[in-house]
Amino acid sequence: xxxxxxxxxxxxxxxxxxxxxxxxxxxxxxxxxxxxxxxxxxxxxxxxxxxxxxxxxxxxxxxxxxxxxxxxxxxxxxxxxxxxxxxxxxxxxxxxxxxxxxxxxxxxxxxxxxxxxxxxxxxxxxxxxxxxxxxxxxxxxxxxxxxxxxxxxxxxxxxxxxxxxxxxxxxxxxxxxxxxxxxxxxxxxxxxxxxxxxxxxxxxxxxxxxxxxxxxxxxxxxxxxxxxxxxxxxxxxxxxxxxxxxxxxxxxxxxxxxxxxxxxxxxxxxxxxxxx
Length: 276
Ligand code: FES
Prior knowledge:
- It is a single chain.
- This protein is α/β, with parallel strands linked by helices.
- The chain contains nine helices and 17 strands.
- It has helices at residues 22-27, 68-74, 109-112, 114-122, 142-147, 168-176, 192-202, 238-241, 253-260, and strands spanning 2-11, 14-20, 33-37, 44-53, 58-64, 81-82, 84-89, 100-106, 126-132, 151-155, 163-164, 185-189, 208-212, 228-231, 234-237, 244-246, 250-251.
- It has a seven-stranded antiparallel sheet with strand order 6-1-2-5-4-3-7.
- The longest helix is centred in the last third of the chain and has 11 residues, at 192-202.
- The two termini are 31 Å apart.
- 43% of the residues are buried.
- It binds FE2/S2 (inorganic) cluster.
- The site of FE2/S2 (inorganic) cluster has 12 residues, from loops.
């Protein structure tokens, strides 16, 4: 059993959970994920890890309440147990000295991208982060992203100071700014739709763009094929070959989005967050 040590609502429908899992905390790397099973009858839910503490032996993840299982998860309290927490799974994000990295994050990605940004800055990269939220009221994780970035840009509707409506506007300016600091790499964590749009936007600029794909998963070990996707014309499994992929090489975005929404009729798509 895996005890829940912290569970808080960051913004309506968005929760952070911290779970005692010593072996997972000991081995975790940026961008890796865990699979959670709430009880013996529960489905297997993948969550990208948003932090870990080897001293406290805990791992953290942030999730958006969108369906039956995440609603059930939202009802648990510190002191309750998860039946299973398997991980760390997948490959850690590629970390090297790239130069100027622009990160785009929305939804669960706002928290999950933090360990990746910390690792990139520790390697000497300059990080500009664009935080996208449906509106000002639903911004969360701002202070963590400020700590983990050299510059933070908010894209949360047009009703706040220094804000733009969408991450695409500041990103386009950054890509076109040849006099400032050229963009050497883009990383996107958020909805599949956002990752697809950003990948298409950066393609003409030739800026390598990494997306973090967590499609439906079952075993998380490359055996069942549930998480398959097409990369460069080849079948790849997000759970073992990813979850980080070159967005310019991902094909079959439509299939990926359709499969992601397989169970959307069971979902309560709350607070403007969409299954895609
Ligand atoms: Fe089964 Fe990836 S979840 S192959």
